[in-house]
Design goal:
270 residues, Rossmann fold, 2 domains, two-stranded antiparallel sheet
Length: 270
C-alpha cells in the first residue's frame, strides 16, 4: 500500500499572536508543531502499513523550519519525507496550497491512498484535502472516524454529526480523518534519533515546473484575499454580591437574567 500523508507545521494557537495591520498570523510568535489533526492521519497510515505493508511518504509545504515537522513524521513511522520550500510558494490560500501539493504528488508517481487530517488548527477550513483530490481527479471521503476495511477497496465510517455513514470506494482515494479515528502513538527515543539522521528531500518550485503551472503557486495562484483581521477582546467572568433582603435580591437577579435575554423585567414593580 503506497500511502501519502500531507502534513503542515502550525504555530501553537494558545500562544500565537496576530499582526492585524498586515492581516496575517505572526507564526514566529509561538512554538511550531505538527498540526494535531495530521497526527491522526499519520497514525492511520502507520496502522495500515503494519497490516498490509507498503510505504508512507510525508509531504509538507513551508519554510525551512518545517523540516522539523517532517522529521517528527519520520520518527512516527513515515518512510520518506518531502518538503516543498520556495519563496514563490509563500502566501498561498487553500486553492494554491492544494494545487502545489497535488503537483508534488504527481511528481512522486503512483500511489494508492492519501490520508489528510480533517483540518488545520490555524486555518480550520477543512478544504485542502477535498481540493487536493479534485486536482488529482480521484474520489475523496471526508470526516472518516473509522476505517472498516482497507485493501482492494476502502470502506470507511464517516461522522457527519447527526448521522454516521458507511462509504465504499475503490483505489486510489483520498480520505480526511477525524480525531476519533485513532490515538496517535508517541515516537520512541530510538525513532527520534534515527529521524534526525534521515534525509528530508527539499523540492523547489522549479522542480515542480514539469508537472505544474507556476502561476498557480503562492500569492499569484490565490484568489482569496483577507480584508480585515479582528482580534476579539476576551472578558473574564464577572460576579456580583447581593447584600439586600432575599426579596430584593430575587428581583435584581430576575432583572439581570431578563436583561441578558434582551427583555425587560417589571417584577420589582409588582
Amino acid at each position: 500500500m503506497r500511502t501519502i500523508v500531507p502534513i503542515k507545521q502550525v504555530p501553537d494557537m494558545s500562544q500565537v499572536k496576530f499582526k492585524a495591520d498586515k492581516r496575517i498570523v505572526d507564526r514566529s510568535s509561538a512554538n511550531a508543531e505538527i498540526n494535531p489533526f495530521d497526527l491522526y492521519a499519520l497514525e492511520a497510515a502507520v496502522q495500515i502499513k503494519e497490516k498490509l505493508g507498503g510505504t508512507i511518504t510525508a509531504i509538507s509545504m513551508g519554510p525551512g523550519r518545517a523540516e522539523t515537522a517532517l522529521r517528527d513524521a519520520l520518527a512516527r513511522g513515515a518512510d520518506r519525507a518531502v518538503l516543498l520550500e520556495d519563496r514563490t510558494l509563500a502566501g498561498a490560500d487553500t486553492l494554491a496550497t492544494s494545487y502545489t501539493l497535488a503537483s508534488a504528488i504527481k511528481k512522486l508517481g503512483e500511489f494508492d491512498l492519501i490520508i489528510c487530517g480533517e483540518k488545520t488548527v490555524d486555518g480550520d477550513t477543512g478544504q485542502v484535502g477535498p481540493e487536493l483530490a479534485e486536482h488529482l481527479g480521484i474520489p475523496h471521503v471526508a470526516y472518516v472516524s473509522r476505517l472498516a476495511e482497507v485493501g482492494e477497496r476502502l470502506v470507511a465510517v464517516c461522522d457527519m454529526e447527526a448521522e454516521l455513514y458507511t462509504v465504499e470506494s475503490g483505489l486510489p482515494v483520498l480520505i480526511t480523518v477525524t480525531k476519533d479515528a485513532n490515538t496517535p502513538r508517541l515516537p520512541t527515543f530510538r525513532d527520534k534519533v534515527n529521524a534526525r539522521k534521515a534525509r528530508v528531500e527539499i523540492w523547489s518550485a522549479e522542480e515542480l515546473s514539469t508537472v505544474a503551472d507556476p502561476d498557480r503557486f503562492g500569492v499569484r495562484g490565490s484568489p482569496t484575499r483577507v480584508h480585515k483581521v479582528m482580534i476579539p477582546i476576551e472578558e473574564g467572568r464577572k460576579g456580583k454580591v447581593f447584600r439586600n433582603t432575599v426579596d430584593k435580591a430575587t428581583d435584581e437577579i430576575a432583572d439581570a437574567i431578563v436583561n441578558l435575554l434582551g427583555g425587560k423585567s417589571n417584577i420589582g414593580d409588582e
